[in-house]
Write a structure and sequence with these properties.
The complex is a heterodimer of chains A (313) and B (432).
Chain A lengths: L1 H9 L5 H35 L2 E2 L7 E2 L3 H7 L2 H32 L6 H13 L2 H11 L6 H5 L18 H25 L3 H9 L4 H29 L3 H6 L15 H11 L3 H29 L8
Antiparallel strand pairs in A: 1-2
Helix pairs in contact in A: 4-8, 4-10, 4-12, 5-8, 8-10, 10-13, 12-13
Chain B lengths: L2 H25 L13 E6 L2 H17 L5 E6 L2 H13 L6 E4 L1 H9 L7 H6 L9 H4 L3 E2 L4 E2 L2 E2 L1 E2 L2 E6 H6 L11 H10 L8 E4 L8 H7 L18 H15 L6 H4 L4 H9 L3 E7 L3 H7 L4 E4 L12 E2 L4 E4 L6 H12 L1 H10 L3 E2 L5 H6 L9 H5 L4 E2 L5 H16 L5 H15 L3
Parallel strand pairs in B: 1-2, 1-3, 9-10, 12-15
Antiparallel strand pairs in B: 3-13, 4-5, 6-13, 7-14, 8-10, 8-11
Helix pairs in contact in B: 2-15, 9-10, 18-19
Classes of the chains: A mainly alpha (313), B alpha/beta (432).
């Protein structure tokens, strides 16, 4: 027993001092780790177990092996939800990165009221998605809403934005981008401020114009931030739920024929509308694996376009 | 004594007995509360804060008069989360002892053996459960013997709320109870003013206040047969009703779902409150809102009659009190429910003047509770006569309440195609 204890202690360092330091560190992170394990790890493990069961939350669960997963593969509604999620990712991630970068570059300049504008752009992040989505529902109201009236001159008044299957993803994407913009902007601002000023000064002396400085200094040196923003946006995109829930709550609940149903919304419906908690857990697990897979691919791809300063890789 | 005199004696005696019975009915309560056997502690959930106040006072009276020493922890779980919470608590084996139940959700809890059979307790207390109208309690019956699993709290029916000012402006007489669908269409046309952005009617909305009333008037059971045997949306009666409503929509007499802002009856009603529509189908639960908030003169009238069947039918819905099958104090829970549905307990609801109490002895008192509102509240009580209970259920709710309505009254899909789509889905959800 003491031998084992010593072997364990040796993991933390060879000298008593380093060991003590390591133990202190462990002790300090312990509350957080324990909390995470208990409130996150345990439910995740339970979801894994539930995904192998048929369970309507009332009757005792029945073990069904991988049935839920094979059913998922053949479920058209699941593939549709996956497709909708992919469409939303395409609609939101590039727009988010493009807009957030522009806003950040603008607000990184010496500008009167800079702090005020930064706050304004950040406000949606701290606004509850539910409240925001309700307001946006009104903005997209076809007759009396803002969008309908702005688009009236081009004949787009009275468009049922939130019910037409081919339109409904646009309002949802708009809210998502609007709400994520501030967060991405802050990340970009931090990235921008980390770029050494001397590089720009040198470039100016060499005669580089504004666009060239942006293209050849800012963009490459900002690429780690861009990468981070992209990864976070994609993960966020896989979790789009509140917007769909609120913006279709009063009309189609997930879109006509499931046209606004995202993976997260599909999960919710399986669990709380259809009372199939086993199936819903399987969806959750698959959603997790897809997100993990996509993130892994992004991590691999980053070597091609993300520049880190020497030694930091 | 001769045979004739025997007969006379029997007749006289039976008349006497009947008259005593009449006297009894006058004096005794329709449903009498009973003292509890043993006080204890109960938890109870309701979804409405106003109800919690009413039920709270009723519970205080129960504790004082029938069950001293009992404790009830009454909690409000708002409607938006009520059913999700209830479901997760069923999962955790942690249901409240007594809680509110809705007809359309009953099937799930009953079929999962989560609810206490109240029939033996009603029998023991001598309550004839048939005194409640069948539309009110049939959806709460379960099992081989059709036992009653809920004590009905209240009912609500549907009628047409109309804006009298807009009728006056158009120089039209107010509708009367003998009006038909043709009259309704006529009014809708005359009361639509496209220039002023005012519509004649909004009556197609989701389940209870919407299109199912019109289907019921044709004699067809709306959406699914009771017993969940088959989808009825493609039946002739459903097609007739929906086509009639779609005509009104196509002519521009009814606004689209998107313009109203939602498919729910609340959305249509708010549109009416805003003066944007003249006639709206609304539930009796909307009376306090209308009295408080309408800025124009208004009244209510019975739904119009289908010209062929001559019937005007309202969907009736009754909220019930149920007890958990796993409660530790079934006797006490049943005793509390008995009190809440008794004449004494129902007085609190009758006087509160919101939803109407289920107890038939309390109807008049409920109508009177509105005082001098100057509104034909009796229309809702009359609507009980030829009413239709709720047959739909949770799993098909979104499809028939939102998708069907949006497809027809927003995206302009044909009635045939929309009902076909809805039935295809409903068939997958019916018990095999």
């Amino acid at each position: 027993m003491p031998a084992m204890w010593n072997a364990l202690l040796n993991q933390f360092g060879r000298t008593p001092l380093t060991r003590r330091k390591a133990l202190w560190g462990m002790a300090l992170v312990a509350p957080n780790v324990l909390g995470l394990m208990f409130f996150f790890g345990v439910p995740v493990l339970m979801a894994f177990a539930t995904s192998l069961q048929q369970w309507n939350a009332v009757k005792p669960p029945v073990f069904v092996g991988l049935d839920n997963f094979s059913r998922l593969v053949g479920d058209a509604a699941f593939w549709q939800a996956l497709g909708n999620t992919a469409k939303l990712l395409l609609l939101t991630v590039p727009a988010e990165i493009f807009l957030a970068l522009n806003v950040a570059v603008m607000l990184n300049q010496r500008l009167r009221g800079r702090g005020f504008f930064r706050t304004v752009y950040f406000l949606p992040v701290v606004t509850s998605t539910v409240a925001a989505a309700i307001v946006w529902t009104w903005i997209f109201q076809p007759r009396y809403g803002l969008v309908g009236n702005l688009l009236a001159p081009v004949g787009l008044r009275d468009q049922p934005w939130l019910t037409r299957p081919d339109l409904v993803l646009f309002p949802i994407a708009a809210v998502t981008v609007w709400q994520r913009l501030g967060f991405d902007m802050v990340l970009f601002l931090a990235g921008l401020q980390a770029i050494p000023r001397v590089l720009y000064e040198a470039a100016i002396i060499d005669g580089a114009k504004g666009w060239q400085r942006f293209r050849f200094i800012t963009l490459p040196l900002l690429s780690p931030t861009t990468f981070l923003v992209m990864v976070l946006s994609v993960i966020n995109g896989f979790q789009i739920f509140d917007q769909v829930y609120i913006m279709t709550a009063r009309t189609t609940r997930g879109g006509v024929g499931g046209s606004a149903t995202t993976l997260s919304y599909f999960l919710y419906q399986s669990a709380f509308v259809q009372s199939e908690f086993g199936y819903a857990s399987a969806v959750a697990l698959v959603l997790f694996l897809i997100t993990l897979g996509v993130t892994a691919v992004q991590l691999r791809m980053q070597r091609r376009w993300v520049y880190y300063e020497a030694g930091e890789r | 004594m001769s045979d004739k005199r025997w007969l006379m004696l029997v007749v006289v005696l039976s008349l006497l007995v009947m008259s005593f019975a009449g006297v009894r009915a006058q004096d005794e309560a329709a449903i009498a509360a009973q003292p509890c056997d043993e006080p204890g502690a109960l938890t109870m959930w309701v979804w409405d804060e106003n109800w919690a106040l009413v039920i709270g006072s009723a519970i205080e009276a129960w504790k004082a008069d029938y069950c001293p020493g009992a404790e009830v922890d009454l909690q409000v779980q708002p409607w938006g989360q009520y059913w999700d919470l209830l479901k997760t608590n069923v999962a955790g084996g942690d249901l409240p002892d007594v809680f509110n139940m809705s007809q359309d959700r009953f099937f799930f809890y009953a079929s999962n053996d989560a609810l206490l059979d109240l029939q033996p307790y009603f029998d023991e207390a001598g309550v004839d459960t048939n005194l409640w109208g069948s539309g009110m309690i049939d959806p709460y019956r379960w099992g081989e013997d059709d036992d009653l699993y809920a004590g009905p709290v209240n009912w609500d029916t549907i009628a047409i709320f109309y804006n009298k000012d807009l009728f006056d402006a158009a120089g039209l007489d107010y509708p009367t109870t003998d009006w038909t669908w043709d009259d309704f269409a006529d009014y809708a046309a005359k009361l639509t003013d496209a220039e002023a952005d005012v519509y004649g009617a909004a009556v197609y909305s989701e389940y209870q206040a919407g299109y199912p009333n019109w289907i019921a008037a044709t004699g067809t059971t709306p959406i699914v047969e009771a017993g969940r045997t088959q989808c009825t949306l493609t039946d002739a009666g459903s097609i007739e009703a929906l086509t009639y409503l779609k005509d009104l929509y196509d002519q521009g007499y009814m606004p689209s779902v998107s313009i109203v802002g939602g498919a729910s009856a609340d959305d249509s009603f708010n549109f009416w409150l805003a003066g944007k529509v003249t006639m709206v189908a609304g539930g009796s639960w909307k009376l306090p809102t209308a009295i408080e908030q309408a800025t124009f003169n208004w009244d209510v009238v019975k739904l119009p009659m289908n010209p062929e069947t001559g019937r005007s039918r309202s969907i009736v819905h009754s909220v019930g009190y149920v007890a958990s099958a796993r409660t530790e104090a079934p006797e006490l829970a049943a005793n509390l429910i008995l009190y809440l549905v008794s004449d004494e307990g129902q007085k609190f609801f009758a006087d509160a003047g919101g939803v109407a109490p289920a107890n038939p002895a309390m109807q008049e008192r409920w109508v009177e509770s509105f005082g001098e509102a100057g509104v034909n509240i009796q229309a809702f009580v009359d609507a009980l006569q030829d009413s239709q209970g709720v047959t739909v259920f949770d799993e098909i709710w979104d499809k028939i309440n939102t998708e069907l309505v949006v497809n027809i009254f927003d995206l302009g899909m044909s009635v045939e195609e929309a009902t076909q789509l809805a039935c295809e889905f409903i068939d997958t959800q019916l018990p095999q």
